[in-house]
């Protein structure tokens, strides 16, 4: 069966994934494709409301399980109202973060564990999964430095996760890399410590390899 045209961009803070998601969307649009570029948490009015609850306020604002449930509530709305309808009409969908972020941040970062997150994922999404996930991997210290929050105890208004500290973000990185090792057919790791143009070239090479004949 053909790989579904649902591509997710994942990675820690300051990994550069959002710029490359926009760049890929522009590249595909330039080839005359309909592309929906979206993000999580968010992507629908309701999910954007939930996003504010998640990215603002104190680090300890939510218990880890409550936080995981909020991410999945937002995701359910996003998938049902935006992602699946777009795929059904033949559009490419590019999402800046998806379910792997919950595994990495809440499963590993907050230590809820892979089993709990996997149960929630199956309940909320069933078998629905991206056709391709690009994991933008960068050493934690460099990522936090790029995100401009290193050594800042309390980050800006939307910086709840950035304020969680290096040990938390190191577990998040380990989580993402464990997902990539477990699912090499779906997840490609991009070394995003490289210069921007090298990263863009790596993304293009992965796209051509994973969607043969579909990308110009
Ligand atoms: P962003 O900065 O990439 O827009 O993402 C917002 C924050 O939300 C980011 O710090 C990671 C966090 N996050 C989770 O903790 N779990 C999730 O499931 C998602 C989608 C994001």
Structure, described:
With 216 residues, the chain is of the alpha/beta class. The chain has one domain (6-210): 3-Layer(aba) Sandwich (Rossmann fold). It has helices at 17-30, 45-55, 64-88, 99-109, 114-125, 140-146, 166-182, 196-210; strands at 6-11, 35-39, 92-96, 132-137, 187-191. It has a 5-stranded parallel beta sheet, sandwiched between helices. Helix 3 packs parallel to helix 5 (114-125), helix 4 packs antiparallel against helix 5 (114-125) and helix 4 (99-109) packs across helix 7 (166-182). The two termini are 21 Å apart. Residues 40-41, 54-55, 71, 97, 101-102, 105-106, 161 line the site of thymidine-5'-phosphate (TMP). Thymidine-5'-phosphate is lined by residues 40-41, 54-55, 71, 97, 101-102, 105-106, 161.
Order of helices and strands: EHEHHEHHEHHEH
CATH superfamily: P-loop containing nucleotide triphosphate hydrolases
- Count every helix, treating DSSP H or I runs of 4 or more residues as helices: 8
Any guess at the CATH architecture?
3-Layer(aba) Sandwich
Q: Globular, elongated, flat, extended or rod-shaped: what is the shape? A: globular
Provide the list of bound ligands, each named once.
thymidine-5'-phosphate
- The radius of gyration over CA amounts to 16 Å
CATH class: Alpha Beta
Structural class: alpha/beta
Terminus-to-terminus distance = 21 Å
**Major sheet characteristics:** 5 strands, parallel
Instruction: Compute the number of strand runs.
Output: 5
Q: What is the count of distinct domains? A: 1
Strand content: 5-15%
- Proportion of helical residues: 40-55%
Could you tell me the CATH topology label.
Answer: Rossmann fold
In round numbers, the mean pLDDT is 94
- The largest sheet has its strands arranged as 2-3-1-4-5
Low-confidence stretches: 150-155
